[in-house]
Amino acid sequence: MNDIIKNSHIRCENMKLSKNQIISKKIINQSELHKKIEENKYIIDISKKFIDDINNYYSDSKFFGILTDPNGCILMTFGEGEIMEVAKNMKMIPGAYMNEDSIGTNAMSLVISEKKPIQISGDDHYILAYRKWTCSASPIINKSGKMLGIIDITGYKEFMHPHTLGIAISIANSITKIIEKEEANESLALEKKYSETIMDFINSGILTCDLEGNIKSYNRYIKEMFGFSSKELDSFKAWRLFKGWNDMTSSVYNNENYSDKEVFVNTKRNKLMYSLTVYPIYDTLGEVKNIILIFKDIKKIRKLANDIMGRHAIYTFDKIIGKSKKIKDVKKMAMKISDSKSTVLILGESGTGKESFAQSIHNYGVRKNESFVALNCAAIPKNLIETELFGYEEGAFTGAKKSGQPGKFEIADGGTLFLDEIGEMPLDMQSKLLRVIEEGVVCRVGGLKEMVVDVRLIAATNSNLEDDVVNGKFRKDLYYRLNVLPLKLPPLREIKEDIPLFIEHFMKKTSKKLNKNIVEVDFNLMASLKNYSWKGNVRELENFVEHAINAERIPIETLKQTKENKSLNFLNAKLGYSLEEIEKEYIIKTLIEKEYNITSVAKILGIGRNTLYRKMKKYKIDTSI
Fold first, then answer.
1. Helix H or strand E encompassing 355
2. Mean pLDDT on 29-40
3. What pLDDT digit, counting tens, does each position of 492-505 carry?
4. CA 134 to centroid of chain Cα atoms
5. Which residues form the PAS domain (predicted)?
6. Residues 60, 13 within the same domain
7. 33 plus 86 within the same structural domain
8. What would the pLDDT profile of 512-549 be if each residue is shown by its tens digit?
9. pLDDT in tens, 476-493
10. Which of 184, 219, 251 is the last residue of a domain?
11. Which pLDDT does position 76 carry in this prediction?
12. Is the pTM higher than 0.70?
């Protein structure tokens, strides 16, 4: 201590401090003091808890206390009687600095330089006026070693005693412990807040409970998903939420995996299916103490899976080619019915774009952000179509997946289910489909639980369902249930004016895909293409264009028909055809075969060129692009 004090005195002399100084050289104004107190409010509030104890201990007015910030600025004084008056007269008041630069050697200035408890008395002080004091000061240091302030007990030197320093140290340590405890509580509270915030931002319902089902905590999604208030959940038992609680807890006890199990939850509104995953929470002895239940919305999971697997509609009405009146009328009608919940029956020959229209209807309606699921009834074996549509439960049949599998109705829940080639559906399945349409519920094969589904159904066929009803191949009641909003797509031969648009579109699309040049189509060839029958419709035309781009020329030979086919079409015309209709057909086929060489066609037909032109005009055989 002698060396510490001696060195401090030397520093004071070097700073030319006057030993006759009474008042600190640095006392801040009220505005600065207010700011300083606000900055140190935390340490002041904690220190105040010990003021009463100090005042009671030193009630004989022989001592007073000081709290400073880490730089020695007095934040608070406490004590009473004559000694406090003396201290005030010496301006030992809030705002005055007790550091070495401002008031010379004292216990508080030495704590600042030495970072440890200090007691000095009498002549140890540099300032003469302070030599009547005994000062005992201790730093208030947090667990990271940062000094937060200084606690000082000052009294007359004749009352100097080592226990005074002990009290100052004890108070400083007590303040430090309270700070550490409050910081720990604040840290825990912050961690709890972080956890709650994270839980609330996780797009799943998270609930914790003990093995008796007493709910401990839950995030906001639990309330949103199940419809219960906080008050209701706080008095709830978790086992009331779903069936299978005992099986679940048994799995947890046996350290068995319990994840992505489909359960029916008794929500406030009705029973809804969710995916449930359970995680155990162990105590220090390795025993299961609590469990975390994570509920996920089946619809959202399936929507994500559908997006990943490409189960979404890509076609929109603006992508459907055609400016003919028939196409415009069909598109207008399709747009009008897009928002309806009623079933749609799309009729049209193979290759007319029935799925393109189904996807466009979906994308134009309110379900555009939901799943679009397509199933071709003709492409699925008859014995598998039921499981494809309705799914199956675990163990429903040999080879069934352990976890079961959802059907197309479940996958499309909230969205659109497109059933292509509906006329190929077996009769026994037709009755089951009718029930789902009418009741809005499905039951998996091998299961007992009925699930409510909200699905917009669009069916399509290239066959005449009315004839199938008459012939007993299609149920009359299902036909009328599907045919609520019929949409008939025209074949390509009825929209000849759109053929150049299709050719242009397919040329650009295919040439880009194959990285090949577009093949030009001249005037006469375009007329041939427009007058060709295109029995495969748009699909046949697209294949034709791809062939042309690969061959780098228009394969006109594919448009020619064999004599056998010509004879068959010409000679076996159905009764009821007029001579004019037969003549028109023969002229068109001859034009195509002779690649619109008018002289050759006229010679074959045995008529003059002018006569041929008159007949082409009469029958509206188009020769323009």
1. helix 354-364
2. 94
3. 999 999 999 999 99
4. 68
5. 191-233
6. yes
7. yes
8. 999 999 998 887 788 888 888 898 899 999 999 999 99
9. 999 999 999 999 999 999
10. 184
11. 92
12. no
Q: For residues 433 and 542, give the distance between their C-alpha atoms in angstroms, rounded to a whole number.
A: 34
Q: Would you say residue 11 has pLDDT above 90? A: yes
- The pLDDT confidence band at residue 562, using thresholds 50, 70 and 90, is very low
Rg (CA), the chain: 46
- Under a CB-based contact definition with an 8 Å cutoff, are residues 238 and 207 in contact? yes
Q: Are residues 384 and 476 in the same domain?
A: yes
Nearest-5° Cα angle at 348, 342 to 350? 125
pLDDT of 441 above 50: yes
55/63 Cα distance (integer angstroms): 9
Packed helices 579-593 and 563-571: angle between N→C axes, nearest 10 degrees: 170
What percent of the chain is helix, strand and coil (3-state, nearest 5)?
50, 20, 35
Which residues does 147 contact at the CB level (< 8 Å), separation at least 6?
70, 115, 139, 140, 141
Residue 257 in tokens: 């995996």
Report in angstroms the alpha-carbon separations of 206 from 149, 224, 381.
Answer: 44, 11, 42
Residues of the domain holding 107 = 2-184
Residue 569 has pLDDT above 50, yes or no: no
The amino acid at residue 96 is A
Domain with 446 in it: what CATH number?
Answer: 3.40.50.300
pLDDT of residue 104: 95
Please report whether residue 553 resides in a domain.
no
In the beta sheet, which residues pair with residue 457? 417
Amino acid of residue 469: V
The dihedral built from the CA positions of residue 51, 57, 58 and 64, taken in this order, carries a sign that is negative
Both 350 and 389 in one domain: the answer is yes
Number of other residues whose CB lies within 10 A of the CB of residue 235: 9
In a domain, 610, yes or no: yes
How many structural domains compose the chain?
A: 4
333 and 434 part of one domain: yes
SS3 assignment for 280-322: EEECCCCCEEEEEEEEEEHHHHHHHHHHHCCCCCCCCHHHCCC
As a whole number of angstroms, the distance between CA 143 and CA 151 comes to 17
How far, in Å, CA of 622 to CA of 500, rounded? 12
SS (H, E, C) 54-66: HHHHCCCCCEEEE
Q: 127-154: per-residue pLDDT in tens?
A: 999 999 999 999 999 888 899 999 999 9
Of 247, 269, 299, the residue that ends a domain is: 299
CATH number at residue 247: 3.30.450.20
How many other CB atoms are there within 10 angstroms of residue 37's CB atom? 16
Quick one: tokens of 252?
Answer: 């947890």
Closest CA to 417 of 393, 390, 384, 443: 390
**DSSP of 87-119:** HHHTT-STTBB-SHHHH-S-HHHHHHHH-S-EE
